[in-house]
Amino acid sequence: MAAALTLLPNTAQAAQSYPDPQPITGQQIIHDPTVIALKSGGYVAYSTGGIIGARTSKNRVQWDDAGNAFATPPSWWYDYNSTADPWAPDLSYRDGRYWLYYAVSSWGTNHSAIGVATSPTGLPGTWTDQGKAFTSETTDTWNAIDPAVIQADGRLWMAFGSYWTGIRLIELNPTTGKAIPGATVAQLATRPDAPYAVEGAYIVHHGSYYYLFASYDACCQGVNSTYKIRVGRSTSITGPYADSTGKPMLAGGGDLLLATHGRYIGPGGESIFQDKGKDVLAYHYYDGEDSGTPKLGLNTLSWTNTGWPKAF
């Protein structure tokens, strides 16, 4: 054991640095989860897979398969994906309705669209698709996938982006939930070199700062996935965001929040929801003891006295 610790000090330290997800039961398989505590009680999670796959829970421990958000894909999805396969949904509640954003695209292209749907209850089978909220084409330098919506300073914003210069931000019309025509597309985070490998953004407001969480490196490769979650902050929703050392997220910065440890490989695809007054981090990881199957991870976030998040 001593020899192993001498040879692998970084690995040993990393294993001690990251908490395991809370124990859960039932239907654990999920990818790119977005979770919310429903006004009616209980929880719902939506994810990549199916026609936006759904899971429900009464206690945040036992999760049950609840089918899909939609019974059939809206016809316009086929313009962006031949199998109408949506990705990386984002679930929120405002103005008396639940809002579900999602991406439709194909691997290796930024001919992509972010759609939006609304529901009075947030439950699967109750969604009305409202069409495209924002799109990108091969002539753009960004990719309209991985949406995450936040209200800030009385305005509505959506972070998005991936392997086309990283994370971006655009303002939405609060009535329609769609991008304001001609709105500036700001850049929030990227990596110094192609393919940039930063995606899955999520922004929360805490104290005096906006915190940008993002997934770095490679997903979707089972036990070979290298995803990890990093975070930076800014006093403005539009940035600039930087980590605790002051390194800008536009230059590859970002404090490491969660990474591979033990059986929990490649955590990422994260979102954050409020539950009983606390922030909860939802993400997927690839289970090293179950052939790399993607599963739901949940950890409560605490905040240090210097204002930085820590998972436990």
Describe this protein with a few key phrases.
single chain; disordered N terminus; mainly beta; five-stranded mixed β-sheet; 2 helices; four-stranded antiparallel β-sheet; 312 residues; 21 strands
Tell me the distance between the termini: 26 Å
Mind summarizing the main beta sheet? Answer: 5 strands, mixed
Protein structure class: mainly beta
Q: Trace the largest sheet across and list its strands.
A: 1-5-4-3-2
Radius of gyration: 18 Å
Q: In percent, how helical is the residue content?
A: under 10%
Tell me the number of strands: 21
User: Any low-confidence stretches, pLDDT <50, length ≥5?
Assistant: 1-16
- Order of SSEs: HHEEEEEEEEEEEEEEEEEEEEE
Fraction in beta strands? over 45%
Tally the helices: 2
